[in-house]
Amino acid sequence: MADALTDIRPIGIAEIEAARARIAGTIVRTPLVKLELGPSYPEIYLKLETLQPINSFKLRGAANAVAKLPPERRAEGVWTISAGNAGQGVAFAARQAGVPCTVVTIETAPQTKVERMRALGATLVKAPFDACWEAMERREFPGVKGTFVHPFDDDDFIAGNATIGLEIAEDLPGVAVVITAIGGGGLVAGVASAVKARVPNVRVYGAEPETAAPGSLSFASGTASTFDAWQVSFVDGAGGKSVFPRMWERMKDIVDGSIVVSLDEIVRAMRILAEKGRVIAEGAGALSVAAALSGKAGSDGPIVCVISGGNIDLAKFCELIGSVA
User: Fold this and answer.
1) Is 4 a residue whose pLDDT tops 80?
2) Do both 163 and 233 map to the same domain?
3) pTM score of the predicted model
4) Residues 263/287, Cβ–Cβ less than 8 Å
5) Are 152 and 249 in contact (CB under 8 A)?
6) Residue 294 domain boundaries
7) Are the C-beta atoms of 40 and 16 separated by less than 8 Å?
């Protein structure tokens, strides 16, 4: 049976600080590195979440959410729904806690991510995208037992994600703009909660691919929206068919908008990150840089781009970056 939903509320700085202390032995405090592109480009810094043990920011939220579970709930085992990165985060945290983990995996998930979830000890149940999306709303899936860890609509998961914002504010107090990918919205909501508590005038944007941009529609209309033109793409870690109404309530007052970029812009950002920063980013991980380079976030002051993940098959990565000049 699904847990009763909690009321939507702001994620406070005290619980973010507590999350940081709680997960300090699990996650890496990732560096903030300037991307040297020359005077004709915006001043861009990279928050390299690719350096986490699972090469994705999702470990922060998963580690905090699993650690916060009451012992009797954790002992039942945990499960989540994921295209790969959240599944790795929950599986990693479950392995540390010594409890079983099941991941309901979107059937289009890249094989690289599937293999990594399995290597972390997760039991995998594959399902179509729509079935997974509906299960995230219902918080239950036929035949899967244990305690559900929602991959984005969960206060503790968001508080863990928010620790990124604390680190950004401490390492670059003059930051003007922060950009993260938008998938479910747990990353951008968490980062905005923390960084705006520390740097009140900062602007925080999400970034989405043109093939899956319900966040942009939601900000334009002022209500949680569905993206009817959704298409599957190599940007598997971001962009959905809709924004959950609960996530819209979390984002609408603290996130300043969503920047939509083309698939070509994302591939070019992946190539720039590899050439100039020696960073391997998956499509979702490069979204923030593509958005910064588009000029839509402005150029008045430093821009921090959260490189959210680097879990991409290397052959696919080489194919993509080889397709653009």
Assistant:
1) no
2) yes
3) 0.96
4) no
5) no
6) 13-57+155-321
7) no
